[in-house]
Amino acid sequence: MCYGSIPIGGALLIIQKLYLILPYLIYCHESLKMNFSPRRALKLLFIISLIVGMYFPGAASAQLPGENSHIQLQFVMVPAKRSNGTTESRAVTTVYTVKYAEDVPTFCQKAVHVRETLIAFLNKYPLQIGPNRQLVFDGVGPKLVPHINRTLGKVMVTEAVLLEGGKHIAKGAMSRLPFAHTQGCGRVLEEYEQRMNELLNNKEK
Known about the structure:
With 205 residues, the protein is an alpha/beta fold. The chain has 9 helices and 7 strands; from the N terminus they run H-H-H-H-E-E-E-H-H-E-E-H-E-H-E-H. The protein starts with 7 loop residues before the first helix and ends with a helix.
């Protein structure tokens, strides 16, 4: 690439974006020292797409999730306390609001650690089972958020919504969510891979 053709303002913008993705570049450098697994390759795909996005703004806006992305993670089995003090195992699904699009890749990369933090939190503070046998989530989300952000290493998540159920969540529960739709990290990975393939195919033409 000929840097002499980039205007001063554009160069400053590129420097600013490079600063934002510096952690990803460091990760990329470290990954090259190790044997690649499919998982590491997908993580590296995130990094490449962010870098490409600096030079192809249209492609970046098309592939990056928007602001305040609502990311739904795989359900976990956690203890829930009955009124008589005994406990039982129940399935809980969580949806996290990630404020900035640039943080979504990092969040998805650390999704396993996020789930571990959730399980540890709900083991320490078990959910209550109400009279109607439904789980009581009042006030749990706001208390969980600081623990999740501590795991992530920075403030990424602004809201956590807990839902009862695993693979099959009641439509009524989903309809009561304060946002229109959610997406999973698997879907984010697929979208990134698709966009990167499109960019590479266009470049070869």
